[in-house]
């Protein structure tokens, strides 16, 4: 029997204010990289809820998704010792409204700082991006790509505790 392919589901926020985009600078095995506030979807949360949580954890800002920018697939490969790490990511990217900043909140492990960059600065820093999706999400946002939150349906069963069969 072959193993089933399971992409890693991630969520990301495209946050723009006054022509600048909120990004995080984070430590990775490849060095310090720029990324959208983003992370893995946790159990018992919808993609929109996960996006709000990740923005708060990585930037200390409250965030409310108001629409979906897009869904993205990306494959990442890295050699680690004798093993080739090969991961496909399925990203739900949201845009929305940025809320209050919590100055007392500690940023997530690995996050060095937040930065605000213009679109041109973001384009010029591609060699420092965590993935090609950082730029693609921004470009789609700038093109006006917007989908209603209802496009992603989260059944109530995701919030129901697991039961043994």
Write structural notes for this entry:
The chain is 18% helix and 44% strand. It contains 3 helices and 8 strands. The protein has a 4-stranded mixed beta sheet. A hairpin with a 2-residue loop joins strand 6 (61-80) and strand 7. The longest helix has 13 residues, at 47-59.
| Secondary-structure element pattern, one letter each | EEEEEHEEEHH
Main β-sheet, spatial strand arrangement: 5-1-7-6
Strand proportion, as a percent range, falls in 35-45%
| Cα separation of the termini | 23 Å
Task: Report the radius of gyration as a whole number of Å.
Answer: 16 Å
Structural descriptors:
alpha+beta; globular; four-stranded antiparallel beta sheet; 44% strand
Topology, element by element:
Blueprint: E1 8-14, E2 16-17, E3 20-28, E4 31-35, E5 38-40, H1 47-59, E6 61-80, E7 83-101, E8 111-118, H2 119-124, H3 133-142
Parallel strand pairs: 1-7
Antiparallel strand pairs: 1-5, 2-3, 3-4, 3-8, 6-7
At a glance:
This protein has 3 helices and 8 strands.
């Amino acid at each position: 029997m072959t193993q089933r392919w399971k992409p890693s589901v991630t969520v990301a926020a495209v946050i723009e204010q006054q022509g600048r985009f909120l990004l995080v600078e984070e430590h990775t095995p490849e060095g310090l990289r720029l990324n959208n506030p983003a992370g893995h979807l946790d159990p018992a949360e919808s993609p929109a809820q996960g996006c709000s949580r990740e923005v708060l954890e990585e930037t200390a800002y409250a965030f409310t998704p108001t629409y979906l920018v897009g869904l993205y697939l990306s494959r990442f490969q890295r050699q680690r010792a004798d093993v080739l790490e090969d991961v496909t990511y399925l990203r739900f990217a949201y845009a929305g409204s940025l809320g209050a900043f919590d100055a007392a909140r500690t940023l997530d492990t690995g996050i060095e700082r937040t930065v605000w960059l213009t679109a041109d600065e973001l384009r010029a820093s591609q060699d420092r991006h965590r993935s090609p999706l950082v730029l693609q999400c921004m470009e789609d946002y700038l093109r006006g790509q917007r989908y209603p939150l209802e496009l992603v349906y989260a059944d109530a069963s995701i919030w129901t505790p697991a039961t043994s069969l």
